[in-house]
Amino acid sequence: MPKENTAPTMKDVAREAGVALGTVSKVVNGLPVGDSYRVRVEEAIRKLNYQVNSYAQGLKANKTYTVALLIPNTVDPFYAALTYHINIALLKRKYRMLLCATDFDPRQEQEYISMAQHNKVDGIIGLTYNPGLVVEENTPFIAIDRSMGPGIPCVACDNFAGGQLAAEKLADLGCKNVAFLRTGSALVNEPNKRKAGFETGCLTRGLSYEMKILDDADSFDEFEAFLADHIINGKLTFDGIFCVTDRLAYLILKVLRKLHQRVPEDVQLIGFDGIQSFGDIDYHCSTIVQPVPEIAEMCVELLLRENMLVKPPLVCLPVTYAYGGTTREKSEE
Amino acid sequence: MPKENTAPTMKDVAREAGVALGTVSKVVNGLPVGDSYRVRVEEAIRKLNYQVNSYAQGLKANKTYTVALLIPNTVDPFYAALTYHINIALLKRKYRMLLCATDFDPRQEQEYISMAQHNKVDGIIGLTYNPGLVVEENTPFIAIDRSMGPGIPCVACDNFAGGQLAAEKLADLGCKNVAFLRTGSALVNEPNKRKAGFETGCLTRGLSYEMKILDDADSFDEFEAFLADHIINGKLTFDGIFCVTDRLAYLILKVLRKLHQRVPEDVQLIGFDGIQSFGDIDYHCSTIVQPVPEIAEMCVELLLRENMLVKPPLVCLPVTYAYGGTTREKSEE
DNA sequence: TCTATTTCATGTAACGTTTCATATAAATTT
DNA sequence: AAATTTATATGAAACGTTACATGAAATAGA
């Protein structure tokens, strides 16, 4: 009779089915077992409502079936979307996700990484900004949006192509004079290629352009000063602006409103990331959309891939453009 | 000499320090040990960079040090905020969080709950809407925003007081004729008290009011029809609107704009939840703010409380009002 | 100085799995 | 029909902990 008030164990199943412990283990793991045995064991499992204890499995196998997600927070919509899709991709493979919100704190980032060496997680998917972060080459680590060094794959959207696409869109929509706006000093990360891509797009399409880069994030005033400087006779000299993130686009939209510039009539605005209001209602702005579900799937696939000898240093996934009200659309596209 | 390529175990520490296994265990768990032993063990721990294997601990103690969070997704900003703060509260107590995104699917909700009975998690914090959900009385479960039955505590903000506060604010700001708008058919949940609270507030302050409740979420057209019906000579008969969520307020704001009603000049709008753009920039609308960090802390505290005999059926946490641009403020408040 | 008592480190068993060497029964060969 | 091979179920050991019974050393009492 199974013990009171406790989940049934393999031993209980073995007793119930009248077979040996090892036989139950084989059935549970899909290894070859005589049919009559298999049937009896399966019946006992159903009767007792048995489920394997994956912590005991992990102890034996020296695996934890847990992957840590290192991410600043889950409140920023882009991080939230990544968290959601990575969680789904992991659960699909019977892995748990240990959520490690680092709040951009280098100390916490390093601490969580040291966990991996201690076999507390089987691997890490990390979106980090701390330039001094040390990840040893043999650590099972997948970096998002940043190359961490040899042997550590990086997954990102095609940031260069995204920048280029933004320039082309603005050109298609009739812009002549455009600007690129950026904040953040994280020069180590892939998203910096957005600038280069935009520049290339502008050159290809003959757009005249200007670049404005600030170290501080959310520095409303400085951008206001910059844009105010480019107003002649009440009219902005730019007819198109590409912001490095949707978050920045949100701020710039407010700046433009304050400066009495109409969007998209006077100036068209394109952001980057594909953030949606309340997670799903509509796009904050016209934007270059990152393929978040695909990025998530790729991170998990790479991390759990058996043959880790084949480690691509960088995987770029394609971006798309989405209309979000801050551009003048030619047609229904 | 410790084994190659493997995290050091207690055995390694014991060998290094020249003490018995049990002594190391005691040191690790802060149990009384002779000073000379403690020093040697601590030194060995530092030298080998040892960390306990909490899966082995859990196996022994029949605990997993893991709590499941059942939540529809992490993309909706309110869910994202809860996820973030619950994660922090759990990590603070050395517990892991298993994120279970249910996507509102009753099958998944029930499946994750059955996990708890199988000792795969030590407890569950759940934000669910499925009315048929079965949670047995002895299950360690804390429900958010919904009473699940006897023995299952519910944590929520003070929804009634929130509704009342919204009515009072609108009255303070000079409204005479107000409306309450709501979507969603989840009549089982605590947030329904927002309506009763608002009604009470209106009666107390002598506001005339109207209630509009739709089953479908996000039914832009129906609300547009409703509000259009209340426009006389181009002017809305309401001078104040209370929306059951910030999400709905976002939609209503669009409806009002379409109907050429100015906010807050013609009509003032108050939402509920305290959602901020991009997680932290500014409030979407003037709103009743839920104390999300406190809700998270309370859920975790209740779930992990030793003496679970003292199970309060319902814990209400206080709400506050925040200005978010959709109300006419008298002063700097 | 010798026994009685206390103190505290030791080492073994157990938690729920998996794996592997062993044993048993069936199938094949001669 | 006896001997050999093959197939496959069995059960013990091990994974890294904790808890408890054991025993050795140190202190106190006479």
Walkthrough of the structure:
Two copies of one chain form a homodimer. Chain A is an alpha/beta fold. Chain A folds into three domains: 10-52, lambda repressor-like DNA-binding domains (434 Repressor (Amino-terminal Domain)), CATH 1.10.260; 66-157 and 293-317, Rossmann fold (3-Layer(aba) Sandwich), CATH 3.40.50; 159-290, Rossmann fold. In chain A, 38% of the residues lie in helices and 19% in strands. The first copy, chain A, is built from eleven helices and 14 strands. Chain A has helices at residues 10-17, 21-28, 35-48, 54-61, 77-92, 106-117, 159-172, 193-204, 220-229, 246-258, 292-304; strands spanning 66-71, 96-101, 123-126, 141-144, 154-157, 177-183, 208-214, 231-232, 235-236, 240-243, 268-273, 287-289, 314-317, 320-322. Chain A has a six-stranded parallel β-sheet with strand order 2-1-3-4-5-13, with helices on both faces. In chain A, strands 7-6-10-11-12-14 form a six-stranded mixed β-sheet, sandwiched between helices. In chain A, helix 1 crosses helix 2 (21-28), helix 1 crosses helix 3 (35-48) and helix 7 (159-172) runs parallel beside helix 8 (193-204). Chain A starts with 9 loop residues before the first helix and ends in an 11-residue tail after the last strand. At the A-B interface, helix 4, helix 5, strand 2 and helix 10 of A face helix 4, helix 5, strand 2 and helix 10 of B. The structure holds a DNA duplex (30 and 30 nucleotides).
